[in-house]
Amino acid sequence: MSARPLIIDCDPGQDDAVALLLAFASAQEFDLLGITAVAGNVPLARTEDNARRIRDLAGRPEVPVYAGCPRPMVREPVSAEYIHGETGIDGADLPEPSRPPESAHAVDFLVDTLSAATEPITLATLGPLTNVALAIVKNPAILANVREIVTMGGAIGLGNVTPAAEFNVHADPHAAHVVFEAGVPLTMIGLDVTHQAIATPPRLEAIRALGTAPSSAVCGMLDLYGAKNVEAYHHGAPMHDPCVIAYLLSPGLFEGRDMRVDVELAEGHCFGRTVCDLHGRTGTAANARVLERVDADGFFAMLIERLARLPMAPI
Ligand code: RIB
Ligand code: CA
């Protein structure tokens, strides 16, 4: 099977970092055209720098990294240093990036690459959807060359950053609205499913036992991430963003249903909520495949096997 052309948009972020390592370790499955960074967990200056540090850790210096939007489309910016630390990848302690980001803006990279594509491109999004939404607004014709969008965001049930909203959607609800209305195949990987993939102590120990620089960085980050989440998720951190890459690698690990999803744009308690029409009450056609279950043991078995493929030490 030929490698799938893929662009990953992200806001590293400790779980983004694990997702990127999983993707970098899967060179046979992914023709990774580029990484685009967006403001989210931490400011853009950190997310793009973190993406480059993780690229080096994975031994994939050839993959271009593009800096994108420094703020959401409309609402005031929010961030999550209280979870991910001031660096955004606290616990990893990675060296300075080996080379600068590309000169093009991430939105222009998305527009130019999709416009010129000779084979449909998959977009995997791990953060607020600002870059992807603005690329669509700038040149809607690019949608013809999008194979699918797989996005970590939203929830059928409760939120995490507010009682109603999940962070990625809450951080830029208007961008999420643009993407959910784009009319391309869209898979939503929300909190309902990512909370089933918890990095428990035994799973972390299995990763630590790999004894490599990447596995050490992963455990350093997830130890902290888990501690910050412990009051909500008991033992360990939910693997939000790695679920996106795992889904692309092994969709059979997941189950979900097609349904209508709307993004609440009205200010107030539910601002940024994904309203998922689980039972078809609106009579509106489905615009997303919403995942609901994951084989967590199968997910971690694949994650550990792939992490083991990465270089022992940064190249
Ligand atoms: O709500 C979890 C999501 O928000 C993850 O992508 C995490 O990295 C943050 O971006
Ligand atoms: Ca993220």
Structural class: alpha/beta
How are the strands of the largest sheet arranged?
3-2-1-4-5-6-12-9
Query: pLDDT average, as an integer?
Result: 96
The dominant shape is: globular
β-strand amount: 15-25%
Radius of gyration using CA atoms only: 18 Å
Low-pLDDT stretches: none
Query: Could you give the count of β-strands?
Result: 12
Q: End-to-end distance, in Å?
A: 28 Å
Bound molecules: alpha-D-ribofuranose, calcium ion
Characterize the largest beta sheet: strand count, sense, and whether it forms a barrel.
8 strands, mixed
Write a concise keyword list for the protein shown above.
315 residues, alpha/beta, 37% helix, globular, binds alpha-D-ribofuranose, binds calcium ion
Structure description:
The chain is an alpha/beta fold. It is built from twelve helices and twelve strands. An eight-stranded mixed β-sheet has the order 3-2-1-4-5-6-12-9, sandwiched between helices. A two-stranded antiparallel sheet has the order 7-8. Strands 10-11 form a two-stranded antiparallel sheet. Helix 9 (201-208) runs antiparallel to helix 10 (213-233). It is globular, with a radius of gyration of 18 Å. The protein starts with a strand and ends in an 8-residue tail after the last helix. Residues 10-11, 13, 15-16, 40-41, 126-127, 241 line the site of calcium ion (CA).
